[in-house]
Amino acid sequence: MFKKILIANRGEIACRIIKTARKMGIQTVAVFSEADAKAQHVLLADEACCIGPAPANESYLLIDKIIDAALKFGAQAIHPGYGFLSENEVFATRCLQAGIVFIGPSAESIKMMGSKSQAKALMQKAGVSLTPGYHGVDQSPALLAKEAAKIGFPVLIKASAGGGGKGIRRVDKAEDFDSALVSCQREAKNAFGDEQVLVEKYITQPRHIEVQVFGDSFGNFVYLFERDCSVQRRHQKVIEEAPAPGISQQTRARLGEAAVAAAKSVNYLGAGTVEFIFSPEGEFYFMEMNTRLQVEHPVTEMITGLDLVEWQLRIASHEPIPLNQESLTIKGHAIEARIYAEDPQTGFLPSIGPLLHLQVPGESANVRIDTGVIQGDVVSPYYDPMIAKLIVWGEDRESAIAQMHHSLSEFHVVGVANNIRFIDQIIKTKSFANAALSTNLIEYEENNLFDKATEPQAEFLMLGAVYEWYNLPSIRGPGALQRGWRLNSNAQVLFTFKGKGWMKSICLFLGDNGVPTGFKIIGQEKTLVISNWELGHNRVSVDYEGNRFMAHVVANQNARYLGNEVGRWTYSVISLSDQLQIKEVHSGELRAPMPGKVVVVNVINGQSVKKGEVLMVMEAMKMEHSIIAPMDGVIKSCLCKVGDQIAESADLIAFQ
Ligand code: ADP
After folding, report:
1. Is 587's pLDDT higher than 70?
2. In the list 76, 229, 362, 372, which could disulfide-bond 11, CB 3.0-4.6 Å?
3. Could you confirm whether 233 is annotated as catalytic?
């Protein structure tokens, strides 16, 4: 076994690999960019080496720097994690040349599976069934359009070199094909440096089911069953589970064998994942093979009781696969949710900023948190905005869902927008609960997912008010209630809270001893009775009208966060003088939702546009985001041009 390995990655996956290495008595070397000098993976590793500035192409993607670091620190092997250089055949070759073991398959296998087009050609030979489509080398737009028509709309255009859901366009009708192709090629060129695309039949309401496989240097292959990763947004997974619900033993074995056949056809070594698309009729087709550890590998670990990183390390150091197919079994059900710094309300735009407050659920045999950040860290525009993975286990799917719901209610993030509430809403939908899974689940359940409530329920306002009351030193305790409030049974105190799109005032009635006895929301008739209250660290709890309400609370100057399993609200507390000054301001500017680069400008000064028209396209985090006309209007002036680097909230277009 290796004595020392280098981890060519960052964030949660680097931390996760270090944990297994430590368990096995292996020393670890972390690499980091200047932005990550104080990151968790750096603190956790035995040694660490700075490899350059924040942008990944000046640090985490620099093969020379990483190999130099491995040689300098005496690492015998490199674990690439996922993303970055994990599927880069040049990197695998360079490791080999430097006498360092690449913990993964051979450069040859990576290359063969690296291009979706080539992989499809290879699988065709190996007898694995494929989605109908075109994956040839001739890339002339006219030919691609003709092939698309032959396949029949809707089709998907996919970047051959693509991954992570980037470079995929769905096209529903022939007249949209050309513009989708141009946009897909542009994104592919930008993100992967390669314009080649393939076109395939769009399977309606499919499931995404993938199989974990392992191969060793003795020619043994096994599959560690399947994961269902159908719940996706923007073709990116958000919730994954194992085993896939409703899959018979027979189908499971067929899937496993097809995956092993795919792995064998490229002499696969180490951990890999073969992805299939499942039609509603139960047919499955090969999509692609990922030649690395997957983000969602923990659900497989939870149901098999195995440590996949340990297997990777053993196989890379020429040990055989630890178990044969017959000894592998599934126990219970596991679900993973990816907690992202992103805003479901604005099309899942990544949210950048400091993690002012981060509370994760307690870990146990049934609850696991994989994360690479702590409170105070910053979600930067340079890397993936994932905050953590929450993985839960239950005897069956229903108890795993219940456990997920409970753990989400204990998960609180303040400072950046996040998808915690959204995930909770997904697992509560009928479709998810009944395991009616498909990659369209989020679209299909749209009405049950995106918060429509514009203002918080009465109990949130009341919890917020009790918290404010408790933190007003002049109100509480002996000698309190100065500052003009009346010290008698009718004493009352008024608070006004302002959130996004709402402003509410609430009056708290105080008893003889100055503690809350009831409340009334201004504008509503009813006065409600408070019988008990308690405040703890980040916690407020109140009994009113016979029920107990609790919330996690975080205060930052006059900004507040209140959250529990019912909802999560952020708002500010308005002082009396501010209340008098609040006026609705109508801004005529369209602002950048995040920092990025302008790649397309579709409008000129004075042009009339219709609501919903794409005015501009920005690229950020290697993905394109359209700036849309919010209503019919006229472009007063365009404030930026193609190529401009834009700061968050910068004005893009003056709109009338
Ligand atoms: P990536 O490598 O970027 O993850 P994939 O080829 O794995 O790209 O596809 C990502 C997702 O897009 C899949 O999980 C699935 O939801 C959807 N998808 C891919 N191919 C098809 C198809 N032919 N029909 C319908 N949906 C598809």
Report:
1. no
2. 372
3. no
Q: Are residues 572 and 621 in the same domain?
A: no
d(CA 74, CA 64): 15
Is the CB of 164 within 6 Å of ligand 1? Answer: yes
Q: Find the 220 Cα to ligand 1 centroid distance in Å.
A: 29
Atom nearest to 116 CA in ligand 1: 6
pLDDT category of residue 490 using cuts at 50, 70 and 90: low
pLDDT value of residue 623:
67
149 three-class SS: helix
Residue 259 — pLDDT band, cuts 50, 70, 90? very high
Residues 346 and 418 in one domain: yes
Average pLDDT rounded to a whole number, residues 344-363: 94
Whether 445 and 469 share a structural domain: no
- Whether the bond into 243 is cis, omega within 30 of 0: yes
Contact partners, residue 334, CB within 8 Å, separation at least 6: 241, 242, 298, 299, 300, 302, 303, 391, 392, 393, 394, 400
Q: Which of 449, 475, 492 is the last residue of a domain?
A: 449
Give residue-wise pLDDT tens across range 596-640: 888 888 888 989 988 878 888 887 766 677 788 877 888 888 888
35: containing domain: 4-103
Instruction: Kindly give the distance from the C-alpha atom of residue 237 to the centroid of ligand 1, in angstroms, as a whole number.
Output: 10
Averaged pLDDT score across all residues of the chain: 91
Q: Is 131 in the pocket of ligand 1 (CB under 6 A)?
A: yes
Side-chain-side CA neighbours of residue 393 (13 Å):
18
Of 425, 449, 473, the position where a domain reaches its end is 449
Is 215 within the bounds of a domain? Answer: yes
